[in-house]
Amino acid sequence: MDILTCEKIRKVYGSGSNQVVALDGIDLSVRKGEFVAILGASGSGKSTLLHILGSVDKPTSGKVSIDGTDLSKLNQTQAAIFRRRKVGLVYQFYNLIPTLTVRKNILMPLALDKKKPNQEYFDKIVSSLGISDKLEALPNQLSGGGQQRVAIARSLVYRPALLLADEPTGNLDQKNSKEVVDMLKLSNRNLEQTILLITHDEKIALEAERIITVEDGRIISDERRR
Q1: Are the C-beta atoms of 204 and 177 separated by less than 8 Å?
Q2: What is the mean pLDDT of residues 167-179?
Q3: Hey, what domains does the chain have and what are their CATH numbers?
Q4: What order of strands is seen across the sheet that includes strand 210-215?
Q5: What is the per-residue pLDDT across 113-150, written as a single tens digit (0 to 9) for each?
Q6: Distance between CA 141 and CA 101 in Å, rounded?
Q7: What's the pTM?
Q8: What is the CA radius of gyration of the chain?
């Protein structure tokens, strides 16, 4: 079952002689439970693609569907709600609220909808990510790797259809980078989470089961590794 489909996605900025084509006819599908890396250099279009998949931006033309929802039909408010409920986002910078505990940061997406967490699932997430003993700490009491684990837990708490990780190791040293990628792999395996990892680092991309390489706004290769 495809959880994500992109059909002829094109994104153009500017006009006339100032026109920049960021994405040029992207066709892409991702099955439920896959761990996919989008690999590309700076300026390749991978970040533009992520923003469109995360319903933060809209394509100039083409169609994106996530879990059966056509994103082009959502207005700004609907897109924000869809993003919170269906798309987990993990960024290079953790975007944690410094005055809230780890527990409250993780539960923030549910709190915004006035929903109670599934305690069994919550416990499974924090246990899998190794932060069960950090729940009452504040973000600044954790290492960079620890804060990224919290960000991953927050992105998973709503059981999103798709988790988008945008250069999640870009702000970390080699040891913490490996730990964060291992956490993503664990989430993929133990929680059956579909993950799209955006990276410029080939070593990081090689951890995924499928690597899609983007160059000049186009997919130039799509390799299933296992």
Answers
A1: yes
A2: 78
A3: 2-224 (3.40.50.300)
A4: 87-90, 162-166, 195-199, 35-39, 210-215, 218-224
A5: 899 989 999 998 898 888 999 999 999 999 888 898 89
A6: 10
A7: 0.84
A8: 17
